Amino acid sequence: MSAWAEPAGRLQVEVRLQDGVIQAVDTRLQRPLAQLSRLLVGQTAEAALARIPLLFALCAAAQQVAALRALERAAGWPAVPEVEQGRTQLSELELIRESLLRLVQDWHLPLPLERLKALVALCRRGAALLQPLTALRAPPLPADPQLEETLAELAAAWADLALPIPADWLGPRLSRWREVALGGPLPAVFDPAALSALLAQLRAGDARAEIAGAPRITGPAAIAGMQATAAAHIEQHVGALLRRTAQAVDSLQQPPLPPAVTGLAAGEGVGLAQTARGALLCRVQVENGLIGAWQLLAPTDWNFHADGPLRRQLCGVRVAEEDAGALLRDLILALDPCVAFEVNIAHA
């Protein structure tokens, strides 16, 4: 393991169960954001960018893209559209690869191993060809027939899959949750248009994943929306991940530009990138050529807020005591934390 390997984070979820009813849900997310910040503050932009691939095992490309966008905006040097689109392709290729692996490993998507390997290899090949864009102030790439061929092969391989709908392969696994009614409502969806309020609290040193005191959700959790039962909820989450993966494959041919960020102070930069789990935000403050502040909000920070989906949906839910742990684990997997998690059931 590298000396700069990602420090471990952890998610602990404790449920208090009484007479078959969930009375309370305590979600505790421990993420080493302060430690990560200390490794980057005081560095030049180039030095910080060199460390990022060594610090993050998951979503490493999205971390690079968000950091590049933040640092270049802080320097008053917006990248040209062709570069931004190429960087979006890079993060979308990572999204496709990580989503496929998650769908197969966690949810047993019926995808033959050889096809999975071929899709992952195409994603890796495309990402390697886009690597020059991870340099600060990178110029646009020259026309690259190999990149075009790789993306076309990926699109064709995806179109040839003919995957079943989630209900067809998830049905047996989720049948035990069809009578488990969930509560609600869910938090509002994270919207980049609300960045001004979020930036104000980040500048004040408040890096909690909330806006105006309220939690938000992002990624497949936001796409799936509120469902009546645990089975429908999980099925919609998995379906949303599958649809988002298909959307990412389509977007490779005409990648969108990142949303504009306005109202930034001198030396301040904000970068957004999309991951398999949702929106990733990086904020930096650069002073005299060195990073003075580095703040990060990842999808796990949003989706596992203490007052997030788990607490809102599970409080008051009736579930057999012997099933409570399995239900909780399936709901957590549907939200997909980027850290290890453990579940504790406390009986009142």
UniProtKB/TrEMBL annotation:
Stretches that traverse the bilayer: none
Cofactors that this protein relies on: Ni(2+)
Residues annotated for Ni(2+) binding in this entry: C338
SUPFAM superfamilies (alphabetical): HydB/Nqo4-like
Designated name of the protein: Nickel-dependent hydrogenase
Binding site for Mg(2+): L296
Molecular function in Gene Ontology: nickel cation binding
InterPro entries hit by this protein: Ni-dep_hyd_lsu, NiFe-Hase_large, NiFe/NiFeSe_hydrgnase_LSU
Keywords: Magnesium, Metal-binding, Nickel
Signal peptide: none
The organism of origin for this protein: Azotobacter beijerinckii
Keyword Amino-acid biosynthesis appears in the UniProt entry: no
